[in-house]
Amino acid sequence: MKNMNSTLLFCFITANKEFIEHLRKSIQEIDKIVIYKSILLSELRRKVNSLLSEKN
User: What pTM was computed for the model?
Assistant: First the structure.
C-alpha cells in the first residue's frame, strides 16, 4: 500500500498482544503504530493526533 501512496498512514488496533509480538519480527517500530483495545475515545484521539503530527 505504501508503494501506491507514500503519504499513507496506518495503525493496528488490537487486543491480541501475541499477534503484535509476531509482527515485531518484521516491523521494528511497531509500538508507534499499535493501539491496544480497550481504549477511551479521548485516548484514541490523542494517539491518532500524535501519529498524524509525526507524519507531518
Answer: 0.67
